[in-house]
Amino acid sequence: MDRRESLARLKAPRPFDILVIGGGATGCGVALDAATRGLDTALVEQSDFAQGTSSKSTKLVHGGVRYLEKAVLGLDREQFALVREGLRERGLFLRNAPHLAHSIRLMTPVTSWVQAGYVFAGLVLYDLLAGRLGLGRSAFVTRGKAQKLFPQLDLSGAVGAVTYRDGQFNDARMAVALARTAQDHGAACANHVEVTALLKENGRLRGATLRDAFTGDSWDIAARAVVNATGPFADGVRRMDDPAARDMLKVSSGIHILLDKSFAPEGLSLMIPSTEDGRVLFMIPWMGHVLFGTTDEPADVERDPEASERDIDYLLSYARKYLRRPPARSDVLAAWSGLRPLVFAPGKQGTQDLARTHVIEQSPSGLVSITGGKWTSYRAMAEEAVDAAVKAFALDAGPCATHELRLLGSRGFVPQGWRALARRFGLDPETARALHELHGDEAAQVAALGQAEGLMDRLHPAHPYILAQVAFAARREMAGRLADVLTRRLPLGLLEEAHAREAAPAAAAVMARELGWDEAATQAEIASVVEGAARSAPAAGSPA
């Protein structure tokens, strides 16, 4: 189902069982949960799927090592429950989307034998809590062994290191996979569709007024239940329902920078458990690059926040403390900022002290709001939100079916299937692997499209992405803007912004053919990518 078909369904004159507002991790998860229970489901997102917070994560599927430390030291049941839930959901996540998620190994340097015992004991507990869904055992390694494993690190002040395992994933494509899988089960999901008003009858919510961002068309949609899953914007939707509603969120910003792959070994990541200001930092190989982050600063709610030079400098200062070759500002290939919706808790000292738990609230008019949480627990959060809606509105729904549900792209996925893909279509190994990892068992469809329509050329010579993926994104993955493709369907804009700008004309030509853009629209889309990438993280000393 493409975007046009979804819009046609959204305009049909009949009530839906449930309308989900928000196309990030939680909203797409709610739509999938509802659709697989047999509910007639609609989902709308004002921008693109995962354009905000849900594509700006650290790309980790994790139980939360730092939450476990707070749980033990502070005897905090909330944090402990968060870790147990996260570890359970981590296992389900990797099992249900194996083409987009996999296990990775992380290392934590320790500077004393006391710290070594403390960290190792904590990570052993972390492994035990995962139970049968565990990813492997933690281990202590000597300084010499640690240096061989991670030669880029400066371990002169360490006695050794502890290694453990967590998960990694592609967040933007995961959200699209959730939305498409929901559609596969009957949901109508559309991006670039904004809710401009909530509709009430006798004081009870009965639907919403929608507006298509591309055409300006506006129409009403009826729904028995409305779920607000808009992340950092949740309080805004709550006030659309009740202007007197009090905020339930504190918002923090977290930025990440991308460095060249030479700054870390391919198969090992770094976890810095506690900085001087009490934060956790990660340096993780991702998509042939190294991702480093994140910050945690109080922020205002805004669309498309930018990474500040101050935050970039903060991350670089820590990278220089741990790496033998200190990265310069010119080594930053890309930087991006995301907003985290943290549930308000009086008495907490800072945003890093707030638990990444979630809250479900129902207003007097019936608006169900779910907010807070983290990517790893999207499935459990969605299950709880749909349970709440079903109970509140007596919806005729079956039991939750997402525990064992494989997402689109994963049903016939074979871990080493890229080899057969390369042989079948004459692809170089790098391109075959990229297609396989981004599209899973749909990779052959993309390659066949490319061969049939002459779209096998690379978008950029330095990256293994081909023109056929642009066409596939427009036809099958609801990409409606050039940035939808270059930043979220493909990660080029998150990896190297200069290369995204260079690839924009070729990608725009394919999008224009697919979506019927005229020359003016095509040039406007190219300009939006060029200006957006330049604005988000200008190199020091260069024009923004």
Our count of domains comes out at: 3
- How large, in whole angstroms, is the Cα Rg? 23 Å
Principal-axes shape call: globular
Q: What's the number of extended β-strand segments? A: 18
- The name of the CATH architecture of the largest domain is 3-Layer(bba) Sandwich
CATH topology of the largest domain: FAD/NAD(P)-binding domain
**Relative strand content:** 15-25%
Unreliable residue stretches: 345-355, 534-544
Specify the helix fraction band: 25-40%
CATH-wise, what's the superfamily of the largest domain?
FAD/NAD(P)-binding domain
Mean pLDDT: 92
* SSE-based structural type: alpha+beta
First-last Cα distance: 39 Å
**What composes the largest sheet?**
10 strands, mixed
Cofactor: FAD
Domain FAD dependent oxidoreductase: 17-379
GO molecular function, one term: glycerol-3-phosphate dehydrogenase (quinone) activity
InterPro entries: DAO_C, DAO_C_sf, FAD-dep_OxRdtase, FAD/NAD-bd_sf, G3P_DH_FAD-dep
Tell me what the structure shows.
The chain is of the alpha+beta class. The chain is built from 18 helices and 18 strands. It has three domains: 3-54 and 172-248 and 355-393, FAD/NAD(P)-binding domain (3-Layer(bba) Sandwich), CATH 3.50.50.60; 249-343, D-Amino Acid Oxidase, subunit A, domain 2 (D-Amino Acid Oxidase, Chain A, domain 2, 2-Layer Sandwich), CATH 3.30.9; 418-536, Orthogonal Bundle (Helicase, Ruva Protein, domain 3). It has helices at 3-10, 25-36, 65-73, 77-96, 113-130, 143-149, 171-184, 234-241, 309-322, 378-393, 418-425, 429-439, 443-453, 467-476, 482-489, 492-495, 497-515, 519-536, and strands spanning 16-21, 41-44, 60-61, 101-110, 139-142, 160-169, 188-190, 193-201, 204-212, 218-228, 249-260, 269-272, 281-286, 289-293, 297-298, 334-343, 358-362, 368-372. Strands 3, 4, 5, 6, 11, 12, 13, 14, 15 and 16 form a ten-stranded mixed sheet that branches. Strands 1, 2, 7, 8, 9, 10, 17 and 18 form an eight-stranded mixed sheet that branches. The model is unreliable at 345-355 and 534-544 (pLDDT under 50).
